[in-house]
Amino acid sequence: MARLPQLVVFDLDYTLWPFWVDTHVTPPFHRSRDGVVSDSGGKTIRPYPDVPAVLDHLQGLGVPIAAASRTGEIRGANQLLDLFNLSRYFAYKEIYPGCKITHFERLQAKSRVPLSQMIFFDDEKRNIVDVGKLGVTCVHVRSGMNLHVLAEGLERFAKA
Ligand SMILES: [Mg+2]
């Protein structure tokens, strides 16, 4: 079996869902009885379609999952993870503004996983550059997280 990372870390905005939680949608969010999530203006919001399958796959492999987001809308981001029924997948959540180097230093301290054994998915090049300096395998996500991007990332990690 291929060498697996010991921690998989995801950005949130434009990596797990197609919007900026601090500007494009308006908290508080709400989930209807049929499971549809909307913002306070009534706009329906969803994660990228493959996201539950991506997280399920990693859970099946036994790889712990973390979130690392620089958003200022901390409460809204956490609420969305809950309402999308995704919180249960995350062993660690580092959600606050600042440079992502801080997020990863804290993830390392909490998980005790070496940075070289982590893989990170993010849509923003500057985060990839910052976190890449730490020795984390970084994958630039161009149009949202999906199973194909996950497979490519895991393959790159295994070969590194
Ligand atoms: Mg992002």
Provide an overview of this structure.
- With 160 residues, the chain is of the alpha/beta class.
- It has a single domain, classed as HAD superfamily/HAD-like (Rossmann fold).
- Helix content is 34%, strand content 18%.
- It has a five-stranded parallel beta sheet with strand order 5-4-1-6-7, with helices on both faces. It has a two-stranded antiparallel ribbon with strand order 2-3.
- β6, α4 and β7 form a beta-alpha-beta unit.
- It is globular and about 45 Å long.
- Magnesium ion (MG) binds next to loops.
- The site of magnesium ion (MG) has 7 residues, from loops.
Main sheet attributes: strand count, strand direction, barrel closure: 5 strands, parallel
Q: Please state how the strands of the largest beta sheet are arranged side by side.
A: 5-4-1-6-7
Assembly type of the shown chains?
single chain
Distance between the termini: 15 Å
**Uncertain residue ranges:** none
Name of the CATH class: Alpha Beta
CATH topology descriptor: Rossmann fold
Name the hetero compounds present. magnesium ion
Query: Level of helix content?
Result: 25-40%
Count every beta strand, where a strand is a DSSP E run of 2 or more residues: 7
Q: Whole-number average pLDDT? A: 97
* SSE-based structural type: alpha/beta
How much strand content do the residues show? 15-25%
The CATH superfamily name is HAD superfamily/HAD-like
Q: List the helices and strands in order.
A: EEEHEHEHEHEH
| CATH architecture annotation | 3-Layer(aba) Sandwich
